[in-house]
Amino acid sequence: xxxxxxxxxxxxxxxxxxxxxxxxxxxxxxxxxxxxxxxxxxxxxxxxxxxxxxxxxxxxxxxxxxxxxxxxxxxxxxxxxxxxxxxxxxxxxxxxxxxxxxxxxxxxxxxxxxxxxxxxxxxxxxxxxxxxxxxxxxxxxxxxxxxxxxxxxxxxxxxxxxxxxxxxxxxxxxxxxxxxxxxxxxxxxxxxxxxxxxxxxxxxxxxxxxxxxxxxxxxxxxxxxxxxxxxxxxxxxxxxxxxxxxxxxxxxxxxxxxxxxxxxxxxxxxxxxxxxxxxxxxxxxxxxxxxxxxxxxxxxxxxxxxxxxxxxxxxxxxxxxxxxxxxxxxxxxxxxxxxxxxxxxxxxxxxxxxxxxxxxxxxxxxxxxxxxxxxxxxxxxxxxxxxxxxxxxxxxxxxxxxxxxxxxxxxxxxxxxx
Length: 418
Known about the structure:
CATH superfamily of the largest domain: P-loop containing nucleotide triphosphate hydrolases
CATH class of the largest domain: Alpha Beta
Structural class: alpha+beta
CATH architecture of the largest domain: 3-Layer(aba) Sandwich
Helix content: 10-25%
Number of domains: 3
Number of strands: 23
Radius of gyration: 23 Å
Distance between the termini: 46 Å
């Protein structure tokens, strides 16, 4: 069964956690005792309704304040598809958590309060989803019950968001009027929105086509581990384990090893349970090669005539996570696929204003939750593709070597001249 990963996004109190709770309840993923506990807690806190946000807000501080702080992952399934949901925070100081949740998503649900319209965080999260190459975006105009399901209000919000989204790199944009609290247009069509002729939210999630989102052209296999059992029956086995980042690998295919540049052929591909005839992303497999080559963690297998860019100079957009700002000249550890290096910030080109999409060229640093364009000089070559082409080989994280804190996430724009 096909898997769809999606993330919620939007401003504070737009109803992200409530929407996920509604989806879990309507698709029968919640046990009766869990629902009874939520109903009891809702009554104890004076609510005259069942606060479904309590199903996802797991931290004590989240429940006490009625906010989402960390990313909460939930799972559900329908007869047509399996789903992994990332419920991300709406507060600006938790933008980095939103980046984490959306980094692996196929689709983003941006929620907007029908009374408030498109806010700064709505735009910020849409920009981040675009930067992270989330190709499908659904704008859920929530709390329509509080504006009497006014069609004109829905159209105004859709028009405003469409104007803003036209500046972004979004392939598929859809609008749905909903009430997460009461379930209108979430799973079933609402009689209160007779003017809405589109699908319900769940129907769209079940049918949105994501097959073309995977890169099956550029074969990329970062080596994570060398398997050498050394047992009597497998004394000559040497396999290179990892996860297929993109492309298709088959026995007999010619491959090139980076950084050495040596070429060989694939002898066999194994996974738990036995050999397979082909490996697709994101399968985790062990690849055996026809020749004995010096290959270790951090190396990469690709096609001889379709290789990534090998460079020490990387141009990238960076989302900054740390309270200590990024400054030009600073040195960080870099983790790119299975390869590690150290990198100096050669140049901070600009900070991106997520509200206007203007570039602030005079900015001298990136503060927490800022997004900017930088050039990095790495100690060893990295094997990169543009992020828009390959989300695995086009992404990296920056780590503070003194605290081992992940301080930034990067999306590769390309290589720069040294």
